[in-house]
Each structure stands twice: as structure tokens, then as C-alpha cells.
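ok trying again, last paste got cut off:
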Amino acid sequence: MNELFKTTGSSLTIFVPSELDHHNAEIIRNNADKIIENQLITRLIFDFSKTSFMDSSGIGVIMGRYKNLRLMSGSVSAINVSFQSS
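nice, full thing came through this time. structure:
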């Protein structure tokens, strides 16, 4: 899972896997929170270039990190987002 996280200064990029579901959400949540706290992260970037599926657990991961960083005057962004219609 460490290949999912990259820190540069006070920024953390999370390379979201192909499926962000309840299995991956807890792992990403726990690791991201540790990195944010230990490395004083103020900018979080979710990279969705490889993601094709996300359920409500994934949305919870994003919103939870957004709320935490907002309290620290940080920012959260999403990049390489694609929209697919069914």
C-alpha cells in the first residue's frame, strides 16, 4: 500500500487504486491520517487516474480527510477524475 502515498514537503498525494471500496477505504484512511499527523501535511491530493469504481466508503475517506485538513487551514483536491455514464 505504500506505493499509494507520496509526500513532497507538506503535500501528500494519494494514488487511489482501481477500486476504492470498503476494503481499501479503511487502509487508505488509516495510513493517510498517520502521514498527515506525523509529517504535518497541509495539502492533500487524491489522484484518480487509475480509479474506475468508488462506493460510499470511498466518499467517506475523501470527506473525512477534507474535514480534518480544513480544521488545520489545509486544502484537498482531486486530479485525473473521469466521469462515466451508465
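cool. Residues 2-79 form a domain with the Transcription Regulator spoIIAA fold (CATH 3.30.750.24). The first helix runs from residue 22 to 38.
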